[in-house]
Write a structure and sequence with these properties.
Layout (H helix, E strand, L loop, with lengths): L7 H15 L4 H13 L4 H13 L3 H14 L4 H14 L3 H14 L4 H13 L3 H18 L4 H14 L4 H14 L4 H13 L3 H14 L4 H19 L4 H6 L2 H14 L3 H8 L5 H4 L17 H4 L20 E2 L2 H13 L16 E6 L5 E5 L4 E4 L6 E4 L2 H11 L17
Antiparallel strand pairs: 1-2, 2-3, 3-4, 4-5
């Protein structure tokens, strides 16, 4: 401190905190924090702030190193540093480490609902969804008792935790409805609820909620998509003499729900393909064709795949870890096959589309009569003449995230729960 009572170290510290509150990645934060710490290295709280600033900049290794050093001191900043390590590891998908820090935090301070909520959310990513949902419910109850002014946050946290752990739509709906009643302005939870309503066949509820969101913000494309979809599908159903309940019976709405949920969470097929591209061996990349031009026309193929790579050269070998040397089909190949089936259906008895249940879309071929298809429910199956379809993955997104993981990348989707666990 100077003779006139002015403390430049405290000034730098205070300004660093103020800047972080406004903009965590502000370039002056690091300069101010390091200057203050050079003079007074015992300021553990400021070291935690510096670590958070570095994380905001994407400097994860340096942020982790600082937090570990603070934890090692076991002073007044220990629990805050442990919380930040928990959140950092959760964010980057190191769930075992995140769980270790979550348990550390609860060992020091077991009162806060948010710490229990994070503990539950991490458990869900590690393949324990039933336990997660129970913990999230208990976190809301704890908040209502100990911090009622934060109940709106707790309800939203539970709803987002349920969707992030792929909870059944009926369980999510009950939690999301409660969260939206508490905070109608939470657009993320409300939009998830719209799609959950659609999955449950509650089309009027879905449209009503989406329209309410559009009245709040007419430029929001999120709720506009389900409104357009519902009105388009209703028109098609009326022209075909069918009702919307038939779509629900055939599982089509289950696929819509999971597809939209995956997009909202950033774990959809497009995200998987983006993550997969840099992991593919050069020999496989060399066999992939350029993407199809995005001109808005119906290609007759899986748009996400042909917009990534429109087909693959024959002879690619075991590129996709399937039982056979499968390769991506191009949109032109798929259209040609569809035309052949339509022209001579008797020669293609397995390919007749005589009901909603028999819908399919080709994705790959082994050039020996085998095809990887996606069914009406979104499952991936191998189809061969004279054999039952062999399901190989629950969805296109699941399949390509499995490819990412098999090549050393991170699969951000929750781990499958053990088969014996109650769901």
């Amino acid at each position: 401190m100077s003779d006139d009572g002015f403390d430049p170290v405290q000034r730098d510290s205070d300004l660093a905190y103020e800047l972080y509150d406004v903009r965590p990645e502000h370039p002056e934060i690091g300069h101010l924090a390091r200057r203050a710490l050079a003079a007074e290295p015992w300021r553990s709280g400021l070291r935690v702030l510096l670590a958070n600033h570095l994380e905001a900049l994407g400097e994860l290794d340096e942020s982790r190193e600082i937090l570990l050093a603070v934890v090692g001191q076991r002073d007044h900043a220990f629990v805050d540093a442990a919380r930040d390590l928990r959140d950092l590891e959760h964010r980057v998908g190191r769930y075992e480490e995140a769980l270790r820090w979550a348990e550390t935090v609860l060992g020091e301070d077991s009162e806060g609902w948010s710490d229990w909520g994070m503990f539950g959310a991490i458990k869900g990513q590690l393949g324990e969804p039933t336990l997660t949902w129970q913990i999230l419910d208990e976190a809301v109850e704890r908040c209502a008792t100990t911090a009622p002014d934060e109940l709106t946050d707790a309800l939203a946290f539970r709803a987002t935790g349920l969707i992030a752990t792929f909870a059944p739509s009926e369980r999510f709906i009950a939690a999301a409805e409660e969260a939206v009643r508490a905070d109608p302005a939470n657009g993320y939870v409300a939009l998830c609820l719209v799609w959950a309503y659609i999955h449950q066949g509650r089309f009027d509820d879905a449209e009503e909620l989406a329209l309410r969101m559009l009245r709040e913000d007419p430029t929001d494309e999120g709720p506009a998509i389900p409104v357009r979809m519902l009105r388009t599908v209703r028109g098609i159903m009326e022209r075909e003499g069918m009702d919307m309940a038939e779509l629900h019976r055939h599982g089509i709405l289950e696929r819509m729900w999971t597809d939209q949920r995956d997009r909202l969470l950033g774990v959809d097929v497009v995200s998987a393909l983006t993550a997969l591209e840099p992991l593919l061996p050069p020999a496989v990349l060399a066999t992939l064709h350029p993407p199809i031009p995005e001109d808005g026309d119906d290609t007759g193929a899986c748009e996400e795949l042909v917009s990534w790579h429109d087909g693959q050269d024959p002879g690619a070998g075991d590129a996709w870890r399937l039982p056979g040397d499968f390769r991506l089909m191009s949109a032109a190949e798929i259209r040609a096959m569809d035309a052949a089936v339509e022209a001579d259906p008797a020669s293609y008895p397995q390919w007749a589309e005589d009901s909603l249940d028999s819908y399919y879309q080709q994705l790959m071929t082994d050039d020996a009569g085998g095809y990887l298809i996606v069914t009406i429910t979104g499952e991936l199956a191998i189809r061969r003449a004279g054999a039952e379809d062999e399901v190989v993955s629950a969805s296109i997104a699941d399949f390509f995230w499995e490819q990412v993981a098999a090549r050393g990348g991170r699969n951000p989707r929750p781990r499958p729960q053990p088969r014996a666990q109650e769901v």
